[in-house]
Every structure is written in structure tokens, then in C-alpha cells.
Amino acid sequence: MLLVTLDIVLRFVFNSPLSGVTEIVEISIVTILYLQLAHTLKVGRVTRSDALYGRILIKWPAMGNIMGILFHLAGVGLMLAIVIGGWPKWLQAFHGGHFVGNTGVFTFPEWPQRLALVVGCTMMGVQFFLSVVDNLRGLFGKPPLEHEEAVDVEVAAIEESE
Amino acid sequence: MTGFEIGVISIIAMLLLIYVGMHVPVVLALISFVGVWVIKGNVKIAVSLLWMSAAKTVADFLFGVIPLFVLMGLLVSTAGMGRDTYDIAQNALRNVRGGLGMATVIANAIFAAITGVSIASATVFTRISVPEMLRYGYKGRFAVGTVAGSSVLGMLIPPSILLIIFALIAEESVGDLFIAGIGPGVLLTFSFCMLIAVMAYVFPNKVAQPGALDQHREQEKMPRRELWAKTYPIVILVLVVLGGIYAGLYTPTEAGAAGAFVAFLFALARRQLTFRKLWDVLVETGHITATLLFLIIAASMYSRMLGISGLPTELGRIIGDMDASLAELLIIYIVILIILGTIIDSVSIMLIAVPLYLVVLAPFNVDLVWFGVVTVIAVEIGLLTPPLGLAVYVIKSTLVQKDISLADIFIGAAPFALVMLFVLILVTVFPEIALYLVELKRSLR
Amino acid sequence: AQETIKLTAISGYPPPATWIGSLVDAYLPAVDAELAKTGNYKIAWNKGISGQIVKPRGELEGVETGLGDLGVIVTAFHADKVPLYDVSFKTPFSSNDIALIGRTTQKMVDTFPQYNETWVREFNQVPLAPTGAVDNYMLWSAKPINDLGQVKGLKVGAAGPNLPWVLAIGAAGVQTNLADAYNSLSTGIYEAMIVWRQGAGAFKLCEPAPFAFDATLGGVNGFSLNVNRDVWDSLPDEVKKALQSQTPAWVEENVKRVNNGAKSGLARCQKEFGTKVTKASVEQRNAWAQALPPLGKQWAEQRNKAGQPGTEILKAWMDEMRANNQPIARHWDRD
Ligand code: NA
Ligand code: NA
Questions:
Q1: Which end of chain B is less packed: N or C, by CB atoms within 10 Å?
Q2: If you measure from the C-alpha of residue B387 to the centroid of ligand 2, how many angstroms do you get, rounded to a whole number?
Q3: Going by C-beta distance under 8 Å and a sequence separation of 6 or more, which residues neighbour residue B321?
Q4: pLDDT at residue C75 in the model
């Protein structure tokens, strides 16, 4: 936000636009996304339709937990696939000196965002795996591992203003 | 297997897995992975599909608009401006049955002139208007449905990403398309308000808690001073964002950053922003953004898989071989867009369908600006239809009230999707709705 | 008996893009016709264009990983991965002849094995042919420009590789793309833009910017038609030969479309928006060319450092331009 605003201001006040804002925004989106992803899953914010699943978990916990194990194992597998696909690509970008932007204007190496993808998907895979562990524990009547509640700004704001 | 078979099987699998509760992005990724593996008989290519989509889909300046508008929405509500908007709307429409619902629609239409993507409208108004509508006794399903329905205005009233993309494909002027979006946008806003009025009179129990709608009439008028104090920050924000775009200070994408910055200043000035709260806002922005982008990436995996299956090429061949009249072709077109809209994201649909149809329509000499508006409305219906309705998913991931389910939002949005279909038919039958202003501009030249 | 081979062609761009329109309308049918002569093989094409399978700029990795069997790579976007194709961007003010630019690129590919080696070794694909992208860049503006001095301090939009051209003459360069251009020019985010005639006409950029300043900046090469290496190795020789021998159909149709687009684009601008083209004088053109940093030399030295024959390619390129009597304003290899 600050960067883009700064670009606008510089462009008009000083008539000298920042170079590379476009590239920086592109890089940051990918990087921030993958470094956030696992936490998003941890706090239960990845989109799902849990009405039926929730009811099954309450009524038939064993069946619900087995379903959960399958769901989350699929997540582990897919993340593994992305990591397998992404590992050689970040090394390629690193050794090949690939960059984004234009020579003589602004350039930034490509490998950090490629590495962020690999790291982020690894963490996401681990998080899916922890969910498998939770379902396994649930299957044997044990409570899940620690859970963090999502911080809710909106609720906090409304409560405080009342 | 043909593209059609793969398309049909994958839709059934998708519906089933989403319904039993698998994470939606995981469902899409899994189906795409298996699909490509089956089609190509090569697991390495399936792995590549996942990686390519993960690395390439959102690495685009355009997507920068999402975190920026999410941030703006959260800061606006932290500053209490969301609540103010609703107090004002409630005050203005306090004698109208269902007035708060209409206020959501109208506020969305105004906001649409700021943003070019419906996702931004949906996030901002989920945070701003859903809590307020609930506070005034409206039903959850109606509240989220209204937000979902009216969020489509974001991409019909200019600026609009979809109109820009159409302009790129059809080589039409972005300016003309923007102007052509105004008429249908206003008509749709009006139709949504009518829908709410009809619902409030005919099915009051679906709209609000018993008695809630009548109780509004007894509310007192807000004092002038208070009204002013609540109005001016919103006016300033709209001026900064809108004025900036139209006065040529910055692009629509950059407007998100400027708006967020101004909202930040207001939150500071109102002493609503502690460091702790700012941190929470940033974390929340990260969560919403990551959720949405993950979904968009997974949706892109699926549409790429369909591309590899050859479904769009097959469709193109079939339509090309038919010897149909213009009316028949348009009906087929709209039906295809709406069907594709249930499972593919708007931008991909346009990129697939529009070039195909430009060839088909070439002999008929239709006005492509009008065709662009028809396309955008048809494609936007898909934002509200299951199983993949992006506006609905956005609302679900932004929503604080966990007792409102995905199904509730889809059901709540259904009447709005029907009204869109009605407006779409009107615009198709009466092109003047879109073209009047454009022709006015052309004649001035 | 006839054998059917399934091949998927990919691009992030739709058919109105000249390099894709010519692929779909000219090249694929030409390959089909060639194969039909013997009838041994038939290709069932899946036209995965318009971003169905890869987004714009994703074609290189799409063909590399096998998501597509064949694709058009926009080499202009991959200066980091295939920098040898960049030589045309580093030698402006040399040629308006897009056919010659394409042919010369083909000549470089044939003469210097490093072109092929990069594709095959690093990116798992086999290049069939390159073709040109732009015939002649011009400076389009809202107010008339008759003199280079007027560009000083002007906000000028340009795609990344063109930015150094305007920065050198004192413009405030704004990096941009065709999608944003109309809006940005109408609202004054920038007051002028570097674009070619077909682009100016197709996107009606001449409505907000009806004045064109033509300093014969020249054209550039932009595309390479490539096949995934694993797929290539698995194809029967007859099919390989058909794919290879029909590339002129693609190249020539693309050149034709770019040139026709330039003509009709300018005609549209003149008719609808009264566009006026101002030709730069020879002195102005030379002054602009001299104001630039030694782009060619800088590029060549960088390539030399990376172990590629930068100096030789630059010289071979300029030799080719000289041999064809092109209007060269600066001999980039002699800086
Ligand atoms: Na809009
Ligand atoms: Na949908």
C-alpha cells in the first residue's frame, strides 16, 4: 500500500515515477500468499462446506474422522506434488540467474518467490498432516492438538464501540 | 475419453467432494491432477500443472488489487465508517420496507464506480453490511444474498476488469465499453431494489425477523449534525478513490492503495487504531487474501485441465459447424456462458468463449460493444451459481458469522441471479440500454 | 492405415494476436495439408490458446513441462531466459522491415548454436522458427510533438524493454502495457506512449493520443514457435518434417498481418480521430539515437561474460542490416 501510494505521489509531485512497482507487487503477492497459506489452514479459514461434515463428526465421530483423514491426506499429497514440481524450478531460477523486470530499468531475481512457493507448500503439507494426526487422535477419543482461534477484528471493533 | 466426458465426470466428482466437506481448493486441485494424469497418461505433466498454476496464476499486478481492497475494507470498518454508512442509509430509507437491503445495493453501486473487481465489493460489504443488517433484524441468508448479488455491480459499472479484458480480446475501445456498462448497471441496481421491495412485501419472513421490518418505521430521524459528521468521511473516501481515477491521478488498481491509505488516516484520526488493532487488521488481510488467492489458483488448475481435455476446442467445432441464425447463436452463447459459469471463473470463460464467438458472429455485423456488455452480464451470473461461485466463496471466507453456511449464501443469492438473467434478456433484446450513451458519445465526435 | 496423433498447441493469447491468428489460420492447416499428401498420419489438434492452458508469459514453461506439446513463446518477455533473442531491442533505429528482422533472427539461430542449446538443454524444447513482432515503434501523444526537446519531462508510457529509449531523451518513463493504455492516456496518467500503428489502431489509443511522432525507431523480433523436446523425440520423422517445413506459412502470415494491421490501424486513426503523423528529421532521428546509451555494446558485453558470443551476434546482426541497406542511425556494434 505504502509503495503504490508513494509511486502515485512521486509521479505527480516530482514527475519521477518509481520503477519496478509492478514487479514488486507481483513478487510480493506470490511470496506473501505462500508464507501465509499454512496459517490460514491452521485457523480454519480455507474455504470448505462443513455443514454436512460437521454433523457427521458429531453423530458418527468414527466415520467423520475417517473422512477427515482422507480429506487431509489428499491435501498432503497435493502439496507434496507441488513441492516435487517446484523444487527443480527454484534451483533452475537460482542457477540460471533468472529475473523479473527489464534490464536497464529494474530487475529482481526470480528465485526468492519460487523458493517461497516451495517453503509455503511444505508448511501447508505439514499443516494438512497435523490435521490427519488430529483426526487419528479423534478416532481414538483423544482431544486434538492445540488450536488457535482466528483473530477477529470486526467483532473486536464492534464490541469496543458498544 | 472425450473432453465432454471428462467435463461431466469432473463436475459430478466436484459437487460430491465439496458437499461432503473437503476443502474446496483441495477438491479442485485433486480433480485437475487426476484429470490431467488420465488424459496425458503421464504423472509428471500432472505435477507440472499443479506447479504452473501455483506459480503463475496470481503473479500479476492485477491481483495486487485484492489485498489492497481487502485492507481498505477492514480499515473502513475499523474506523467505524461502515457502521456510519448504514446509519445514514437507514436514516434515508427508514420509511421504506427493506430499506437497508436497498441501501446495500445502492452503496455497492457507488462502490462499483471505485472498484473494477467484484471480489473487492464482496469482501468490503461482507464486513460492512452483513453485521449491520443482522443488527437491524434481517435474516442471515437474505443479508449475505444481498451482498453477493449486489457485488456483481462491481464489474458492470465501470471501471471493470471484465470489460477491459473483453476490449483486449475484441479490439474494441475500453472507453466505449465502460460507457456501455453504465445503462445496464443502473438498470440492474434498480431491478435489485425492486426485488428487495417485492420480497419485503410478499415474503417478509424470509427477509427479516417477524416485526423487524415494521419497527424500522418508528425510528427517529438522525440529527443534522450527527448525519454530517458521519457522512463527510465517506464522501472524502469516495472522492479520493473515484476522483483519483477520473481526474487521472492513478489507475483503478492504484486506487485501492490510495483508498486504504485514506481509510488508515481516518482510523488514526478517530483514535480507533492501536498498534495491536493495526496488527490484527494486517493479519486478517493476509488471511482473507491467502484464502481467495488459493481458491483462484485451484480454480485455474481446473480450467487448465479442461483446456487440456480439449472441451473448449470441441465446443468451438460444434458451434462452427452449425448453421444457426443470430438469435439462435445468441441463445446458445448465453446458455454456454451460464453453464461454464457454474464451474469456471469469469476471466477464463471470457478468454475461451469470446474469440470463438467473434468468428461465429462476424457475418452478422453486430455491435461488439453491446456484445461485450451481454457477455459480461452472462459471465457474472456464474459468480453466484454453485458449485464454483467465486462471489459466494469470497463472502464465506470473509464472513464473521460462522453459522451462515455456503449453502445459505448460494440460496440467498439465487433470487439475485434470476434478476440478473432477466436484465440480461432485456439488454439482449433491447441493445439500446447499453448503446444509448455510446451512440450519444459517437454522435458528439 | 492412418495414424492419428493428438497434439495440443498452447498460448496465453487469443487469435486476434497476429502470432496466434496466423498459427491457427495458416500454420496448423498447412501442416494438416502436408500430412494429407501421403495420408500416413493425421494430427488431431487441441487448440489450447486464449489462456485455456497457460496464461500470457506462461508459454515457455508450458511447453517445457509438457502441458502443451507446441507453443508460441513470446521471447520479448524472457530476456532473462533467452537473452540472445533480445538483440533487436538493443539495436533500435535500424530497420522497419519486419520480414527482414524475422529472417535475420532465423539466420542468427542457424549460425550460432547457442540459441538452440539454451532451448534444448535448459528449457526442454526444440525451436522451429522465430518471427517478428513489431514493424515500427512510434511516439503517440495527446499534444503534437515536432521536436525532441518537447519530450523532456513528458510522462511517457512504454513497455519495459522500450523504456530505456525514452528515458534517454529526458522523458519521465512510466512502465505500462496495452491493457491499461487507453485509460491511462485518457486520464493523463501519461501524456504519450511508445506503441506501433497496429496497436494504436486496434486499441483506439489514437483517440486520446492522436499525434504520432515517427523517428523510425524500428521494429523488433518477438516470437519463437517451439515443440516440447520429449514430444519431438517421440514423433515420426514424417510428422517432424511436416511441422518443420511448414513454418514459413506461420512466419509469412504473421508478417502479413502485422503489416496490414499497421496500414489499417493508421487508416482507422486518421479517419476516426484525425491522427497526424510527424516524421522526424534526419538530424532529430540521429540526435535521439546518439542520446541513447550504447545499448548494443552493453548487451554484447553481458552476453560475453555469460560465455555466449555477444559481440559476434551483435556484429552479425548489424552486418545483415547493412547488407540490406537499412536506414541505420547508429552502428551499435561500432560504439
Ligand atoms: Na466497477
Ligand atoms: Na458459478
A1: C
A2: 6
A3: none
A4: 94
The residue among B33, B44, B318, B352 with the most chain C CBs within 10 A of its CB, best to mutate, is B352
Which is nearest to C194 in space by CA: C166, C170, C158? C158
- How confident is the model over B134-145, as pLDDT tens digits? 888 899 999 999
Cβ of A8 within 8 Å of Cβ of B257? The answer is: yes
Contact partners for chain C, using 3 or more CB pairs closer than 8 A, are A, B
- Name, in order, each residue with C-beta under 8 angstroms of B315's C-beta and a sequence gap of 6 or more: B336, B356
Provide the edge-to-edge strand list for the sheet that holds C192-196. Answer: C172-175, C155-158, C192-196, C137-141, C211-214, C276-279
Cα–Cα distance measured from residue B129 to residue C306, given in angstroms and rounded to the nearest whole number: 58
Query: Using CB atoms, which residue from A29, A67, A156 is nearest to B64?
Result: A29
Q: Give the angle C311-C316-C319 at the CA atoms, nearest 5°.
A: 125
Which pTM was predicted? 0.82
Q: What is the pLDDT of residue B180?
A: 93
> How does DSSP assign B127-167, residue by residue?
HHHHHHHHHTTB-HHHHHHHHHHHHGGGGTSSS-HHHHHHH
The B residues from 26 to 45 touching C (CB cutoff 8 Å) are: 40, 42, 44-45
Neighboring chain A residues of C167 at a CB cutoff of 8 Å: 105
Closest CA to A26 of B74, B396, B175, B60: B60
Give residue-wise pLDDT tens across range C32-86.
Answer: 999 999 999 999 999 999 888 998 889 999 999 999 999 999 998 898 999 999 9
Phi/psi for C138 (5° steps) reads: -130, 165
The string of pLDDT tens digits covering residues B326-351 is 999 999 999 989 988 887 778 778 87
Within 59-78 of B, beta carbons closer than 8 Å to C belong to 60
Distance B104 CA to ligand 1 centre (A): 15
User: H-type helices in A50-60, by residue range?
Assistant: 51-59
CA dist B249 and B242 (Å) reads 10
